Amino acid sequence: MGRHVLLIEDEANITEAIRFLLTREGWTVDTHADGRDAIEVIRAAKPDLVILDVMLPGKSGMDILRELRDSDGLRDLPVLMLTARGQSRDREMAEKAGVNRFMTKPFSNAEVVTAVRDLYAQASRT
Amino acid sequence: MPRDTLTGSRIRERRAIKGLRQADLARQVGISPSYLNLIEHNRRRIGGKLLVDLAEVLGVEPSMLTEGAEAALIATLREAADEAGLATAETDRAEEFAGRFPGWAEVLSWSHRRIASLERTVETLSDRLTHDPRLAASLHEVLSTAAAIRSTASILAETGELEPEWRDRFHKNLNEDSARLADSSKALVNYLDDSATGEDHRGAPQEEVEAFMAANGHHFPALEAGTADPDAIVAAAPELTGRAARQVARAVLGQYLADAAAMPLEPFAGAVKVQGLDPLALAAAFDVDLPAVFRRIAALPEAALPGEVGLVICDASGSILFRKAITGFALPRFGEACPLWPLFTALSRPLVPIRRRVSQLGRAVAEFDCLAVAWPDGPPGFDRDPLYRSIMLILPLRHGEGTAAAAQPVGGTCRVCPRSGCDARREPSILSEGF
């Protein structure tokens, strides 16, 4: 089974672009656009890595991240967080909540692909 | 070092600023260079004619040499040192520093004042972002769309051979997003331009009406005196540019006129003066219902009120129909208000007056006395359900006023509300405190 990423993002065109990029890199990409049932979706999808938007309908990406870190079996799941707010305190909060990588919009495609690749490599080593 | 012992240091500094050699200055005031050297190293006290002569040659007032930099400069330096957490021993030498390096001291003082000024600007902008959901939403929309465009454009530009199906899809996305970005950027710029000129952005008819009401202080003497009718006032209002806005304004003024007829200004203002803002007593005194009293209170001239008064009216869907802003209570521009407001609680208990002490989180927590009631709007009918509206009067609470019960915390709108763990939250906040 190939590498599997779950992208949780409610901007359809951002989702499409990232899905295209990662698919070409050999990833299997699942997408989801709602924060409310994100944890259940993650649990069911069992991805190798999650790309998580902060502002999602229903539940904040930060809250989802915190729940992940409190959940058995999902605690160590690598999370790349995307946000339109890049203030240092937001980054600190994300790091405190247990994010693996924090990226602000607008990001470059290369940054996203590299971050995903690095996070996967790090997780594979541990 | 005490201030008056630094005269020599100041002389040396001023001489250096003027580019004079010690020997030249000594010669011009008729003393030996070695004596001037002792003076400049604060080893000889001077005064009288010699001080005046030195000051004259150096081009400063004698007091500048004896008293040094002004007290305000010293105070600013100490303040800067305190804020930087500088050691006490160094802080104690602020006078010496200012005396020996007046130019640098001025630079430091200016920088400190500039930082304070910029901090105030940042605070103001943060405050605006906190209380301005539209600005926050606009910025988020622009950034998200820019992210989609950047990513899509990069794929189109950097991917060598792109399948026609993907290429067409990305072209379509790019086209959509660029149109969205153009719209959201334009809306943001218009909004900022309007804000800069002190005008609100005019979008929905209610916003034009709100600007019109605010421009008139929510009070219309011509209607009170019967010298103009709603049509004439609306026709002459520059704020009302759209037909829909004029129609809404006519309805608002029609209601105003009816309220004024039921509660004429002079006796009503007199009753407020005697009884205070007691809506139940006022309703009884004028034989009107509570919503009418709330509206009338909000329409009184400032001089007839003990303080600021806010008013919000919504329909059963929760859409805000009318608002009169009050300092410290954030009211969202477009609906989506905090469901914890007593305004909405009243909708679940029509005709039951509700009074709640609430606090709203912002840069500072402000408390308000909110009085709300919902009522069926329009005539009753056997075969139709009543249409309810709700109205809330917002009065500021001064420290110590109100009941002993803790104030109920409420927000403005979820998107910019920092409260975490709120059961009423509809969507994530863009403020970090809410994460």
From TrEMBL, chain A:
GO MF terms held by the record: DNA binding
The keyword DNA-binding is assigned to this record: yes
SMART domains to which the protein is assigned, alphabetical: REC (SM00448)
Residue(s) carrying 4-aspartylphosphate: D53
CDD domains the UniProt entry points to: REC_OmpR
Keywords carried by this UniProt record: DNA-binding, Phosphoprotein, Transcription, Transcription regulation, Two-component regulatory system
UniProt keyword DNA-binding, yes or no: yes
Span of domain Response regulatory: 4-120
Name of the protein in its database record: Response regulator
GO terms (BP aspect): phosphorelay signal transduction system
Pfam family name, one: Response_reg
UniProtKB/TrEMBL annotation, chain B:
CDD domains listed in its UniProt record: HTH_XRE
Protein's UniProt keywords contain DNA-binding: yes
InterPro entries: Cro/C1-type_HTH (IPR001387), Lambda_DNA-bd_dom_sf (IPR010982), ScfR_C (IPR018653), TransReg_Diox_bact_type (IPR050807)
Gene Ontology cellular component terms for the protein in this record: cytosol
Keywords, comma-separated and alphabetical: DNA-binding, Transcription, Transcription regulation
GO molecular function: DNA binding; DNA-binding transcription factor activity
Entry-linked Pfam families: HTH_3, ScfRs
The HTH cro/C1-type domain, residue ranges: 11-65
Listed name of the protein: XRE family transcriptional regulator
Organism taxonomic ancestry: Bacteria, Pseudomonadati, Pseudomonadota, Alphaproteobacteria, Rhodobacterales
